[in-house]
Every structure is written in C-alpha cells, then in structure tokens.
Design a protein that fits this description.
The radius of gyration is 21 Å and the shape is globular. 49% of the residues are buried. α3 packs antiparallel against α6. It is 80% helix and 0% strand. The longest helix is centred in the N-terminal third of the chain and has 30 residues. By secondary structure, the chain is mainly alpha-helical. The protein has 17 helices and no strands.
C-alpha cells in the first residue's frame, strides 16, 4: 500500500468516526438534554434521509470535478454541523431554540454526507492501481464499519467525563484531522460534462444499460435490509426470549461491529476469489437464514454463536459488493454509481427499521424476528434466481 493511499484511508476513518459521532451524539443529546425522543428520530432521519435526495447530485458532481474537492467540502459541512451542535450545547440561553439549531445541524450533516459518501469512493481509484483496487475497496468498507461501530463508544467515553460540548468538539477535531491527512494528495482529472440534471439522467441510463452494475446495486439493497432487526427487534428479543438485563443486552449487540469487521477481513483474504457474485449472494441468503434460526434459540451461548455468524456473513457480502462495484464501474460514471451504492446503504437500513418496527408491534419480538428473516431470505433467494449476470460474474470482468 502506498503512503498516499494509507494516509487517505486513515483520513476517511477519522471522518467516519467524527461524522457518526455527530449522528449518534445528536440523537442522544436531544433525548438527554431536550427530553424530546420523538424529535431525536426525526433528526436522525434528516441526517440519513437527505442523501436519498441529494446523493445523486453528489455523485454527478464527482464525475465532473475532482472528487477530492467534493470530499473536502463534505467534511467541511460536517465540521459546520458539529460546531453548530457545540455552540447550542454550550450557550444556556439557546435552550428554547435548541431544537431549531439541532435541525440546522442535522441539515448540515445530511448535506455533507450526501456529497462526501460517494466522493470518498469515487476518489479511491486515483490512489489504488487497478490490480489493488479490490483490496483497497474492501479495506475501505472495513473502515466504514469501524467508524460506525466506534463512534457510539467514543461518544459514551467522552460523555462519561465531559459535557456534551466536548463530545461535539472531539468530532470537530477528528474531522479536521481527516482534512489534514488529505493535504497534498494528487488531484483526479475530470472532463467537464453535462449539467447536473443531465449527468444524473446519464448515470441512471448507464446503470440501467449495464446489467452487472444494476444487479450489484439490487444485491446491495437486499443485503442492507438485514440491518433493521439489529436496532429494532433484537433488543426486545434479547429481553423477551433470553431474559438478558440491559448491560448484557448491550454487550450482545456490541458483538455486531467486530463481527461485521471480521466479515470484511475475510472478504479481504478472499480477494482473489473467482466468483465474488456467488459469494455475496450466498452470504446474504445464509445471513438471513441464521437470523431466522436465532428466533428459535433459547440459550445465550448458542444465540451469540448464531448472531456472530450472521453478522460475519453479512459483513463479507457487503465487502464483496463494494469491491465488485469498483471493478465493474466505468471511470466516467464511477461517481454516480458510488452515489447509488451509498444511497442503498442509507435508505434500505432505514426501510428495514420501519418494517421491523411494524412487525414488532404486530407480532412481538420472537415471531417478528422469524417472519422478517424469512421474508428477507425469500427476497434474497428470488434475487439470486433472477440475476444471472451477477451469478456468472467473474472477478476482473468489466461492466
């Protein structure tokens, strides 16, 4: 790995940690200080929902200008969001207007994610040669999981000893450090293209006319449907079926992040696998089946083993997805493809959370987990049957 690539990946990791500290900190601060749990959900929806609308513009921009500039701009937006929250938490007389300031910070964060998420992926091939791009993409995906899993731990540790303003200032420091890591990196040359609207339409046309790209994005959507039960159903399931106390439930759910990371590392060790399409489809189906098995388990050790297995399989499947998309995407459309991928990683976990909540309310945690897992498993099998291009895809085949 070149020093420039290592520096870029480390900068992305710092930004993942700082950015998710904003998301998680915003929710917890709203619940703890403002006593507004309903608003906390709405604010999180803004953080993750805006990329569904503006992510297309972010991807189109990455194909028209140097994506590293877009990354820096997105990270600047995250700094603005964190500073807004730090200011609101620091100034006592802003309490009445705090929800409005929190919504402003969520808007800054959502817009920043919309542009930074596809740009980070779009710039990656500029530092990783073709022969090492798959490994770099898998490692990048592992770092996203580290950032997502590590941010809540950082928030908890800082909050245990310092006030909320310090939490948000730590997020600022991490993101500023990420910007410093990216100083001096080479620019990626882009030819001026059509207008933003025209570029987006061209991107949709390219995806629709390139079966392997389209089917990888569909597989990404199906894989990320597995995320909802972890946040919505499992806490209630661990209480009702396994009778775990709050501390033990937290430790159980905390296994998700290292297990997902382990799955990504397994995918990295299998980077020369000839048929990654089959591997990722098998991983999604097997992960869904294990979630269904978990609904029938009544002992804690077996539940831990099944849960870890499901997360490892899901982590490896998602890592294969990210790497394969880098392989098959044409350079001229890479930013728009990565924007589409980023949108699947944000919209479908949110959708799965909604569906999980509806099932939980209607059937209780044990049956809801079984029904949801069966549904996702059926969708994954159907997708595997209906996507022959993905099943036949071989590593290194262009899109």
């Amino acid at each position: 790995m070149s020093p420039q690539l290592a520096r870029y990946l480390f900068g992305c990791l710092l930004a993942f940690l700082g950015g998710h500290m904003i998301n998680f900190g915003l929710v917890q601060w709203t619940q703890e200080v403002l006593q507004a749990p309903a608003w906390s959900g709405a604010l999180l929806l803004v953080c993750f929902g805006l990329p569904i609308v503006f992510g297309w513009q972010g991807g189109a921009l990455c194909d028209r200008v140097n994506p590293l500039r877009v990354v820096r701009g997105g990270h600047g937006g995250l700094v603005l969001a964190a500073l807004t929250l730090a200011f609101t938490a620091w100034v006592p007389w802003l309490r009445r207007e705090a929800l409005a300031w929190a919504m402003l910070a969520a808007l800054f964060a959502g817009l920043a994610w919309s542009f930074a998420a596809p740009a980070r992926l779009a710039y990656l091939p500029n530092l990783a040669p073709a022969g090492r791009l798959r490994s770099a993409a898998i490692l990048f995906n592992v770092l996203t999981t580290v950032g997502f899993g590590g941010a809540p731990l950082l928030v908890g540790q800082v909050r245990q000893h310092f006030p909320w303003v310090t939490v948000f200032l730590v997020a600022v420091a991490l993101i500023v450090a990420s910007l410093l890591c990216m100083i001096g990196l080479p620019p990626a040359q882009r030819a001026p293209g059509a207008t933003a609207a025209g570029s987006i339409r061209q991107g949709w046309q390219y995806i629709g006319q390139t079966p392997i790209v389209l089917q990888l994005l569909v597989a990404s959507a199906v894989a990320h449907l597995l995320m909802g039960p972890i946040q919505v159903i499992l806490p209630r399931y661990l209480d009702a079926a396994l009778h775990l106390d709050p501390g033990d439930r937290g430790m159980f759910l905390g296994l998700a992040a290292p297990s997902l990371i382990a799955g990504g590392l397994i995918a990295l060790s299998l980077k020369r696998l000839a048929h990654p399409g089959r591997a990722l489809l098998a991983g999604v189906v097997a992960s869904a089946l294990l979630c269904g098995v978990l609904a029938q388990v009544v002992t804690v050790p077996l539940a831990v083993a099944v849960f870890v297995g499901a997360c490892v399989l899901a982590g490896s499947a998602v890592a294969f997805l990210a790497a394969s998309l880098q392989d098959v995407s044409a350079e001229a459309f890479r930013g728009r493809v990565m924007a589409s991928y980023a949108i699947t990683t944000q919209f479908f976990p949110a959708l799965s959370g909604l569906l999980s909540g509806l099932l939980l309310a209607a059937h209780g945690p044990v049956r809801a987990l079984g029904l949801y897992a069966a549904g996702v498993g059926a969708v994954a099998v159907l997708a595997a049957v209906l996507m022959p291009t993905l099943r036949a895809y071989r590593r290194g085949t262009p899109g």
